[in-house]
Amino acid sequence: MKQKTNQELMALREKHVPRGPFNITPIFVKRAKGAVVEDVEGKEYIDFAGGIGVVNVGHCNERVVAAIKEQVDQLIHSCFHVAMYEPYIQLAMKLNEITPGNFPKKTFFVNSGAEAAENSIKIARYATGRQAIIAFDNGYHGRTYMAMTLTSKVKPYKFGYGPFCPEVYRMPFAYCYRCAFGLQYPSCGVSCADYLEEFFIGHVSAETVAAVIAEPIQGEGGFITPPVEYFKKLKGICEKHGILFIMDEIQTGMGRTGKLFASEHYGVAPDIILTAKSLAAGLPLAGVTGRAEILEMPHVGGLGGTYGGNPVACRAALTVLEVLTRELLDKARALGEKARERFLALQKEFEIIGDVRGLGPMLGMELVKDREKKTPAPDEAKAVVKYCYENGLIAISCGNFSNVIRTLMPLVITEEQMDRGFTILRKGLKSVQ
Question: Taking the alpha carbons of 250, 256, 259, 263 in that order, is the dihedral positive or negative?
């Protein structure tokens, strides 16, 4: 059968798929390996998007593919609630062992990051007997109803879909480049964290708050990276008031910041930690891990789902963790240093880059029309993304103003591939400067 072109497939997509699911590029992928994607017309692209942070170990990692094939021959699905299987238990044991916190933990599995966020709120409310949840400006936690309520940005994620879930309150995040309090770090003393105490006065009483949920680095919000003291302060305030602290590591986890979990950079151990995206290298799997006494509280049958912790996805995840810990974490740290050098060099060259931020190879550059006023430049960011895919690089933007170019390249990317990618990115910036 003759292979259809991108244009022919796009015509079919427009006829048979609703417009709601957004597409960053107009290409259709035929195959992908490592950090390279090939479309149906044979054109290759360096991948700086990684499936939005899903393939940290690379597209079609050979060891992961082998584990998937072996598991498919044995068991594809039985539903953990009907007949259990060992990979689920092995993966739960592994996450209990490696997630931050020197205390007993338990883990269960669902299908997606949004489901993990939803379930963490269910558990927090059940465990505390409280209803209120505090989330953050610029935060993103998914598209299902509670996850969408926790998410900050209205368009495209929430527009027209209300009413939203009750008892969710939102406070400013540690966005140093655009400080909500008009202060500067470090002279500010990280007062944005201390503001939580004041938030209890004017927005919601501490006695009714079940949990605070945050991303270590805000992903869709613009790769906003708090100062190192920020989360210790927040966690301390939560502990003072009996509030659970939930860390959403869905995008930041699995080596993306040069450590297995971004929480490690901040020296905090969340009460509940969420994992997904790169956990299973592209298969749908998400984990909810937390203090054993908290995870144990919901009644039998109160948690779970038909496909949660699918055996094939669990086998993939076990292999992902092995590859990350044995082979890729050191590489991720080195990759982060090189990528930061490249970004800072671009910032010196192009006035349009107002800020460079992130940890490890999870880096973003915020584009502005002028550095003094920090006027967002979303049209320019969109033009850069378009230039990139037209010239062989898949790059994506993010941020409340859609003006941040972010890097989520697979950690297995070669130096030659990264050089090519940054050459294209530089030309894209030059085209809009």
Answer: negative
How far is 73 from 4, CA to CA, in rounded Å?
31
The CATH code that applies to domain 6-60+329-432 is 3.90.1150.10
* Nearest-angstrom CA–CA distance, 321 and 314: 11
47: exposed, middle or buried (C-beta count within 10 Å: 0-12, 13-18, 19+)? buried
CA neighbours closer than 13 Å in the CB half-sphere of residue 323: 26
Contact predicate 96/288, CB 8 Å = no
Cis bond upstream, residue 104 (ω within 30):
no
Amino acid letter for position 389:
Y
pLDDT at 433 over 90: no
Q: Is the peptide bond before 163 cis (omega within 30 degrees of 0)?
A: yes
Q: Residues 46-83: pLDDT tens digits? A: 999 999 999 999 999 999 999 999 999 999 999 999 99
Residues in CB range of 163: below 8 A, 6 or more apart: none
SS (H, E, C) 340-383: HHHHHHHHHHCCCEEEEEEECCEEEEEEECCCCCCCECHHHHHH
Domain boundaries, the chain: 6-60+329-432, 63-324
Residue 321 pLDDT greater than 90, yes or no: yes
- Give the Cα separation of 398 and 358 in Å (integer): 13
Tokens of 272: 């509940």
pTM score, two decimals? 0.97
Enter the DSSP assignment of 324: I
Right CATH for 63-324 from 3.40.50.620, 3.50.50.60, 3.10.129.10, 3.40.640.10 = 3.40.640.10
